[in-house]
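Homework-ish question, so no full write-ups if that breaks the rules, but can someone show me the predicted structure for this set?
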Amino acid sequence: MLTYNFEKNSKTPLYEQLYSFIREDILAGQLPPHSKLPSKRALAQHLTLSVATVQNAYAQLIAEGYLYTKEKQGHFVSSLETNAPREKGRENSFGEKGEELLPKKEEYFFDLKSNSLSEENFPFSAWAKIMREVISEQGKGLLQPLQYNGVPELRCAISQYLLHFRGMLASPEQIIIGAGSEYLYNLMIQLLGKEVSYGFENPGYEKLHRIFRMNRVAHFPLGMDADGLSCRELRCSPVQAVHISPAHHYPTGIVMPISRRQELLRWAAEQKGRYIIEDDYDSEFRFSGRPIPTLFSIDEQQRVIYLNTFSKSIAPSIRISYMVLPWELLQRFRQEMSFYSCTVPSFEQYTLAKFIRGGGFERHINRMKKTYRQKRDALIEALQASAFAERVCIHEEKAGLHFLLSISTELADAEIARRAAAVGVRLSFLSEYLYGESNSSYQHQLVVNYSGIDLSRLPEAMRRLEEVFLAEKG
Amino acid sequence: MLTYNFEKNSKTPLYEQLYSFIREDILAGQLPPHSKLPSKRALAQHLTLSVATVQNAYAQLIAEGYLYTKEKQGHFVSSLETNAPREKGRENSFGEKGEELLPKKEEYFFDLKSNSLSEENFPFSAWAKIMREVISEQGKGLLQPLQYNGVPELRCAISQYLLHFRGMLASPEQIIIGAGSEYLYNLMIQLLGKEVSYGFENPGYEKLHRIFRMNRVAHFPLGMDADGLSCRELRCSPVQAVHISPAHHYPTGIVMPISRRQELLRWAAEQKGRYIIEDDYDSEFRFSGRPIPTLFSIDEQQRVIYLNTFSKSIAPSIRISYMVLPWELLQRFRQEMSFYSCTVPSFEQYTLAKFIRGGGFERHINRMKKTYRQKRDALIEALQASAFAERVCIHEEKAGLHFLLSISTELADAEIARRAAAVGVRLSFLSEYLYGESNSSYQHQLVVNYSGIDLSRLPEAMRRLEEVFLAEKG
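A: Not a homework solution, just the prediction itself:
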């Protein structure tokens, strides 16, 4: 029977590994067209995997046309030319089979670019227990139509959370739940208007300008200085609504000081129709210093839309984000946009509400803060003890899941990244996050994402990085 | 303790009834500010309700500022002037407290306007069983990031469903899952472009022109004739992308014949950049006649986007819809829009995939078809046996959850609706669904939605309708 070597500690899920193995065998002709695959149960037993893992791999292979099923007979290898949905001479219009693949995650030994969370740290059993409770408690109630702004329980839980842990007064009425921040950005653009000019931080969150572009609205990158978004650049631009992440800017790591926050609020207050979109996505993971109040809290003019997400603090597959609207915009939203149904199923909303109310969310955040702090401390210690310690300098390490590392080097950023990749270490540089022309002040600044690193590999990773930097010297 | 009379058979959920009772007591001063409410458990026991019901009512009251909680002390009535989130002098900017209320569902004895599904017919226990299985089977896998287009299992299940029950060949690769049709319309507008002129059926689906308006795209209502959307009007318009629901148009009930379908496809093929958005939302509930192939299936030019939803066939709170893109548009979608994360949680997707694959969906549809057919038949029979039988005529009753009833009358539609409402019967007229100026050919046509009616009330409802029509005569 099919036999493969799985990498148990890999970040690639087992089903994806299995999927890749079988796919390669099909493409290489090891598994000829119309040959029958083992049953899911048999293969699972043989490879000591769960049946669900095999099922997921098979499903992915079916989705991409590598396998087909015959009712009650099992799974068979497709003849890649005659696979049904491609029959109609459409292969050429779409090109390679491979394009349907999951986003290619190349296998690095040590990845300092990916800012994925460590799933293994999420208290899934507690979460699953709440899911089961919600099924029993709500029963058929789960089928009832939703309010446009979300389930009251969840909006209340978020309101109380914001009050206790963010010192922010937001009525549950002002909160609007949506399926992810990207969705809410789209709603915001509809709410503020297509004729409005939007501004965004540069360097910054890459998806944002794509969303502006897809909405065909005018959008302008605005530079940063040591305090965050440059008010000078903002004032020289035609921007009316500006997106910022003052709690912890990605990728520079800057925490916007109160003076700059006030300056931005003054800018907004000066003219009718100016708004600030405050993206607080990372604020849970502050390690030291007093938290700075949100712009939303200190705004007296109803010009700030506050936005946050649980995709970052729980898991990316939890598509729950929310925005808090000032009252005037809320009224406009209700009049013009409350016809949109809420996009998050009530089941997820009740589950999250219980998780927050029962203290599970707070405990999880505290646990993650501890884990991330340990990772950060170990990484910084290793960098400072490394052979290249005197050539690097660490910045903006007090919050959120990354810091900056400036390097003194002759090499171009891309060349360093290439050399590190060659020894299995994935790096990323600030310059990659720039929109438009490059800016030399962003050269040689590593963006170090440590949330997903495996500490047991740290010594070896440092050894490999030393190799990269010593080779440069020599 | 608080004692109220609940209407057990009401369509208003118990928690909403309880919420209204308590709210009225607060507004009337029966429950004075800062008085303590009974504990959820005690009130539930006292009123023989579930704790979840009381909890939902309390949560709604908190959300709207009528109640507040003190930690470990319970629920208290707010002093409506000093309630925390309103303190900052913002009450006036928002007006009445009451505005946060759930969409007001007036209490009718018999409702022929609401097209809500009968929740009680959904096999919730089978669904809940699958939910529990998915939690166990997928475990932490539920936390993994989603592919932009949805979980492969669900796309495969939909692909097979479309093949078997709709005779439509759509590869799982072409399917894109999203949180509701409204969300997918927004994606489509981004995909096809803001510079495109959109057309929609008039009368038709009311939300559609709101979505076009919120997206600030040019949009044109197009008239209908006996075969559906008028190709003559379409050809006289600048429309490039037209939305239609050929399987069963709401509210006219017209099923578009094959000749008109082909005519529309010819229109699309004539010029580059023309597209048809085929909304098949109601196609599961066809009662007689051979199903007509979808435009997507007979389109040779890759000009049709197919759209369908499970909100209609399962429950409105299931926010799962999907679109099937022709290959060329799919390629554009992948290049420009696959950065958008999928908006439906993987949990719901796995659950629905299992429900479809295990045959539960098909059984549910068959059961519902039977139920709806019974309702339709009983209603038609009662109408034909009524005292006003000779003044009415039934049309377009072969598909979907509504039919048309033309009435010979001197009264204006609004007046008939008002008189019926006065005796507890809710009616709606075709003329209400018109966009823009009224059209006399749509007068005196009742849109009879029967999916949610209570057959035990039918004889009394007919008696009351007779009263309305006899009064007119007299």
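Now go work out the reasoning yourself. Hint: Chain B touches chain A through 94 residues (CB under 8 Å).
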